[in-house]
Write a structure and sequence with these properties.
heterotetramer, A: about 260 residues, alpha/beta, globular, C: Glutaconate Coenzyme A-transferase
Amino acid sequence: MKRAFTTDEIMTIAASRELIGARSCFVGIGLPSIAANLARSLHSPGLVLVYESGTIGAKPTRLPLSIGDGELARTADIVVSVPEIFNYWLQPGRIDVGMLSGAQVDCFANLNTTVIGSYEHPKVRLPGAGGAPEIATACPRTIIVMRQSKRTFVAHLDFLTTVGFGVGAGSRASLGMPGAGPSVLISDLGMFRPDPETFEMILTSLHPGVSVVDVRNATGWDLKVSGELIETAEPTDEELDYVRRLNFGTSAEATN
Amino acid sequence: MKRAFTTDEIMTIAASRELIGARSCFVGIGLPSIAANLARSLHSPGLVLVYESGTIGAKPTRLPLSIGDGELARTADIVVSVPEIFNYWLQPGRIDVGMLSGAQVDCFANLNTTVIGSYEHPKVRLPGAGGAPEIATACPRTIIVMRQSKRTFVAHLDFLTTVGFGVGAGSRASLGMPGAGPSVLISDLGMFRPDPETFEMILTSLHPGVSVVDVRNATGWDLKVSGELIETAEPTDEELDYVRRLNFGTSAEATN
Amino acid sequence: MAEFLTLESAIAANVHDGDVVALEGFTHLIPFAAGHEIIRQRRRDLTLVRLTPDLICDQLIGAGCARKLIFSWGGNPGVGSLHRFRDAVENGWPRSLDLDEHTHAGLANRFVAGAAGLPFAVLRAYAGTDVRAANSTIANVTCPFTGEVLAAVAAIRPDITIIHAQQADRAGNVRLWGITGVQKESVLAATRSIVTVEEIVDNFSDDRNAVVLPSWTVTAIAHVPGGCYPSYAAGYSERDNDYYEAWEDLSRDRAVFEDWLERRVYERGSA
Amino acid sequence: MAEFLTLESAIAANVHDGDVVALEGFTHLIPFAAGHEIIRQRRRDLTLVRLTPDLICDQLIGAGCARKLIFSWGGNPGVGSLHRFRDAVENGWPRSLDLDEHTHAGLANRFVAGAAGLPFAVLRAYAGTDVRAANSTIANVTCPFTGEVLAAVAAIRPDITIIHAQQADRAGNVRLWGITGVQKESVLAATRSIVTVEEIVDNFSDDRNAVVLPSWTVTAIAHVPGGCYPSYAAGYSERDNDYYEAWEDLSRDRAVFEDWLERRVYERGSA
């Protein structure tokens, strides 16, 4: 008999699986942190976790509440300054994968974490850029994890904080962005990957129990669906045990 | 009865006196190092010695043989990387005084430490620039210490490694050099200071027993002599004791 | 050479209305006690500079001390929003707040340029983002060797930088370790600096590769044990995560915040 | 991840004829044993990179390994000249030597740019000097905010950087302390790297602010106690100043040098 799981759990677990084979991951706080820590605990014990607080090779035994958590410094191979983490470690593309989230995403996987409404007179002032724009620029690939609704998967971002594929094919090259961009966008409903021609994110996998209609109803743009749509593999017992253990006692709400 | 002293000793002692009142000194090896260490031992116990190896606040108990001597690291307040010592400490003008030497100097206190002869086919290949050009650029003032002869005090440098006053008044400003330049050039014969109008180095002090003719005979340009020429104060017993103690067991030959 | 002062005297002497004030510490070693003293001394029109404004800037903004914020990520890390910051930006309460908004890499490099005495720093950043469009402290620079177009950020040189550190020695040298963020750069970039410390020691241990600020780079030192609470000082204290979580509700309502301010800051006198 | 190899295998696998080879260590931790192994393996046409060429480059140049030297100060510190370097530049013996000559600040920043993945670095340097005139890796760059004209130096990205460090742990992480020069930058700027170490330890001590190169930034580690002799490793050895002083005479004469090379390098086999 199968165990029940939440939509957040399958989202996080699916994200952690995308880190299999990665050597190192630049981790934002919140959902990305849960996924990256899950990956290190479960699939990729050698995965080097790098946080923008300057901790490299952190091996937290509990989920860090913030990217500057003392647990990260205590368990790291080295702790460097913030200028150094960005200049010597992120910028040259040393960190294989960046894990990002956002308040809004568009069909080219660009992210908004700055404002809802206008910049000058915002309806909601969000935290801002943090490390995301340079993670998205420099990492050889990125993974985006965020909950999906018409409010978050939008046709037009209110503010473009972090470039995914810009306006599509050729954008990253013309902007001088060395990394390949988002390899996957993972929501609580399914997974989206860039079309190799247009670089628009198309639905490639549905989480168990979710229909294409469900996803369309939670997408603000005219969603394209892969001809080879699959179902996301259900969480294993081991994955569920780990994600529940990690998640205990901290919040997954914040987006950076 | 007065004690005898060598020309090197009065040169070094005169240089050390120029550090009275300075908070910090960027020190090259050789004669500058002897003078700076003498100053810290004798006149200025709080003088912060900074070496291009990254040692800040070194308090060596013997004269360091090189700028990367273990004694400097052991006794320093901090040891920083070489990029940091130049970028964060020297470049912003944090170090009050730079002590320099050279193989050739001209009447505007520009220095050559690169070649004798042509650059492409040198008669003598010298060590090169090291830290000197940026010390001369950034320090609020510099002190030059070098032995004097027609070979070293020349009308035309074979190579301009380090700018003193360039071609005279206005040169430093037009080159964007923040520091004021050499406040004094000290040789084994006398002391030279910049004319406030022309910035040519003029003889302002003769070491005891030296005549203006002696200095002229050891100067490759048409030497100007100050109307207020004085005699350098003789070394005190204490100065001589210290310089002899410091000098023991190491060489004062190298120029950087 | 650094002068040993009470926190009250250090703030009174070094923080003036209208100053550009950097308060640094990345999650770790955030100088809360100094921030509260600035509130108590009712400084106004400050330009606050902090990569992660965190609760300390939320409190200063809510108390009406700031007219501008230079920052790169303004949330309550792992918890939610900075409601006082949001209220100022969204509603102009208690006053409007100008923003000079960067990425972490960009703002960190503005401090690097300031510390290095250069007018700008170069990085590969901001391409294609709206962050760049609205900001006059970001520009292009072209590599003279390859022709690549990169981002330039203007140096930042605060009037005063305030940090919290684990130790000072009696000569006024300051030592910090663990997550050290951009503290060294922010102090070296500033005209003046105040360091609050957990402890004053006779001698540091022999680790000369830790971050040390020599006495002559620091203006004033105040001995304020726990001066980074509810943040933490590695080796001395743990972060009070409950405080951060409680702030989410406490700060949401203006009246509740003002009551907190009255009871926990104004009535407390010097920390 | 770093591979543990003998010095002989590490050099054989990673240093090729024609490579750009940085050998760093500022007076302290100079990788002499690796340099001698390069001589023994008779590598040719190398471009050597070192702020202070020191005796190690003098020996490599005298042995005919190098066609070019990128450097900033080429003397025998505190003693005198590098006679093999001078003989190559002045007389083309044993072959001519191209020079790419900088100041310390300039060459250090070339490594910084390489480590940072940028094509150039900015500094206030070289103005008015002949050092600049002859060098194509130095150019102007104008601040887009202030109009100030500064120096740009081209990034350097060695094919291989070789350093000596005090310790590696069994996972291949490397730790060094004391005067650390430009070693971190030179390793991070390079395509490949070899680290010779005094000791292999189970665990590093708790000082996480020391310079540590994670295993995945290093290509090969060789356990070579004393591998920096006659330089020194803080905590392990003292500099042999007599060796440096004796080099002044030993290196002055080609025949005496060649005899030294035969007896002390070629006949010694792998250190």
